[in-house]
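Subject: for your reference before the review

Hello V.,

The reviewers asked for a structural picture of the protein, and I figured it would be easier to keep everything in one thread rather than splitting it across files. Below is the amino acid sequence we used in the manuscript, unchanged from the supplementary table.
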Amino acid sequence: MAKRKSDRSTDVPGNSVASAQAYQRQLVKASEALMSLEDTLSWYEDEEKWVYSIRVSMPSEDRDEYLGVIKASGVEGDQIAFHQGGTYLETLVGVAQRLKNRTLKWRDDEYGNKK
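And here is what came back from the structure prediction:
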């Protein structure tokens, strides 16, 4: 009796050369963004703004995406900015890129300024 060929595909994520290369490119991009974060933060120090907290909150019942919360203090008082992403890594890399590109929308941290 002849062996029956499976209907399942053998091409699973990471199983082909193309998907392995795509995965490697994604890792390199993320690594570069995160490795440059320390230098980027020193730019803000030159402007007398000190980023003292970067955290990522997991999705919740009322929010489907990850939420990056960035806190800074400076001459204007405590400030806060946010960035959302689809995955933990995407959110953290997005925060690093937005800090570098200076595209975060900073606002007064009402909770932080109540000290």
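For the response letter, the relevant points are probably these. The helical segments are 17-35, 37-46, 88-101. The longest helix spans residues 17-35.

Happy to draft the paragraph if you're swamped.

O.
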